[in-house]
Amino acid sequence: MLPSVEIVPIAQEHIESFHRSLDFVARERRYLAFLEAPPFESTQAFVLDNIKHGYPQLVAVSSGEVIGWCDVLPNPRPIYAHVGVLGIALLPEFRRHGIGGRLIRQALDAARDFGLRRVELTVRENNTVAIELYKKYGFIIEGLQRNRILVDDGYENLILMGLLFE
Ligand SMILES: CC(C)(COP(=O)(O)OP(=O)(O)OC[C@H]1O[C@@H](n2cnc3c(N)ncnc32)[C@H](O)[C@@H]1OP(=O)(O)O)[C@@H](O)C(=O)NCCC(=O)NCCS
């Protein structure tokens, strides 16, 4: 039986366990652009800056620990300021229980409320689970970058997906 999971905006008390979860998923080497988490200090600065600006960043919390997140971070350049970049992940034991769907739905609502008009992301071509999730929430494939990723001597294509808020 999965322990209860609540989804809340990230706060200072979440930073340590967020960093641990980010590091765990990064070290799976299959999903994220990171192969390990950035140093704690830069992750702390990153989260505190998101909180200060009110950027959409939700965390899934179980027994007080962050076990997943979904953020939609606005692009700093004025001509792209209406665009947010989405990132999402859960620890393995919490996957396939509908939590990813709850996270992305709440993050997209927060992005819309923040005033973003477009959300985009990149996903590895082999990550069919994530691609299915994104399609389910209205993202469409907008492009492909061939051999964009090289991990462990293996090349992978990167897919670009986007969603427009009507
Ligand atoms: C991608 C991820 C966040 C999905 O979260 P999740 O909680 O497992 O997904 P859910 O259980 O909410 O399922 C939502 C939808 O995702 C898709 N999906 C999830 N697991 C799937 C699976 N094993 N096979 C196929 N589709 C799947 C389906 O479309 C599903 O909709 P459905 O339940 O109506 O079939 C999660 O698998 C994960 O953390 N993966 C590793 C990190 C990652 O890939 N991040 C994205 C990098 S771009």
List the main descriptive attributes of the protein structure presented here.
7 strands; single chain; seven-stranded mixed β-sheet; Aminopeptidase; alpha+beta; 35% strand; binds coenzyme A; 166 residues
Please describe what this structure looks like.
This protein has a domain at 6-121: 3-Layer(aba) Sandwich (Aminopeptidase), CATH 3.40.630. It is 31% helix and 35% strand. It is built from 4 helices and 7 strands, in the order βααβββαβαββ. A 7-stranded mixed sheet has the order 1-2-3-4-5-7-6. The protein starts with 5 loop residues before the first strand and ends with a strand. 27% of the residues are buried. The mean pLDDT is 97. The structure holds coenzyme A. Coenzyme A is lined by residues 25, 31, 88-90, 95-101, 123, 127, 129-130, 132-133, 136.
Percent in strands? 25-35%
Shape: globular
The set of bound ligands, ions and cofactors reads: coenzyme A
> Largest sheet, order of strands side by side?
1-2-3-4-5-7-6
Helix and strand pattern: EHHEEEHEHEE
Number of strands: 7
Specify the biggest β-sheet: 7 strands, mixed
* CATH domain class of the domain at 6-121: Alpha Beta
CATH 2nd-level architecture of the domain at 6-121: 3-Layer(aba) Sandwich
- Span between N and C termini? 39 Å
The percent range for helix content is 25-40%
